[in-house]
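User:
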Amino acid sequence: MATWGAIIRGVIATVRGAHKLEGEITLPGDKSISHRALIFGAIADGASHVRGLSPGADVSSTAGCLGALGIEIDGSTIAGRGLRGLRGSGVPLDCGNSGTTMRLLAGLLAAQNFASELAGDESLLRRPMDRVVEPLKQMGASATWPPLRVGGGADLHGIDYATPVPSAQVKSAILLAGLYAEGITAVTEPFKTRDHTELMLGSMGAWLSADGTRVEIHRAERLEPLDITVPGDFSSAAFWLVAGGVVGNSHVRLLGVGVNPTRTALAELLSSIGFRIRRKQPRSEASEPVADLEVRSAGELRAFRVDRAMAAGMIDELPVLAVAATQAAGTSVISGAGELRVKESDRLAAMEVGLTTMGADITAQDDGWMIKGPRRLEGARVDSAGDHRVAMALAVAALVADGKTEIDGAECVEISYPGFFDHLENLC
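Assistant: Predicted structure:
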């Protein structure tokens, strides 16, 4: 049985160990796709229709920034003003806690004939933005950090840029600037990251090509409007895939989930170590593959290793993968995940503290964790560190713990998944 204690105490979620999870849920719209649909729809020629946008606070931050730039958004309709139709904001654009908002808009606004400043909360302002500023400066843009200021009329030119850190946000920022740049703009990554930007811009008529980890884009004259339904967010589904496998007697169905191959590395790894995950009713939505996912309780789980290439493909899902590792037989090693140090929190440290408090054998390393299992977890008072993925991962751990677990700062789930604790209670 699980209870969500926000009504009583404001910021504490109380979750009790569960005997089983059963039912079906529809996940919030994919956060990555929602951000891109709003931003790309804003610079399309005409109205775009985007159904099922993520209800999370991060995507609301993107919508708010676009409103300040003169874009009208009415429900599922985005009144695109064309590539040169944005207008400058007289005040800094508030990106809230959203790194995606800040980085993608930096790429778009670097090419505009007005200057913009992008601001955010304390957590966001600690995150590294130089990885976006540097390539934009190489393209001829005016870009400084901190604070993050971009744009002002400079003509951009294409570059051939190799990203030192695999990041779909950085790649997307450069490709957005490339829509306005003379010549060809190319981005090569050390490992392939999620390709929602490439798929969406390609569907809107941008001249774009991808070959392995390299993407090229040409200057655009116009973009066609969008008409899409956003699939369910796989990163949100990840919590239920793990929970459904580690809680006994469970059968969970997740409807309409995006299963883009650049996003599903976690499901493939889980299946390889003993999780029972099935895809049903595969279909497509605006070039994005979609399916219903079903997970049943797993048997004995095997320990695993994650290297840098694998980590890049499941970076957002690694906190809940750490929970799965506490229930696997042997020593699991997750490496190549140093990027987790500079997310909404230091996720490596936050998960080590939280799971250790619950009785797990987990040691944080420079770029990952070493986790020995299986361990019987105990309910405890733990801290979300103000990080939505940490809060939800600890809630999954609580489902296999004895007694009750209290999660401080649990309101941060509003960033990406406002209905998370309601869904948890329903499945219990």
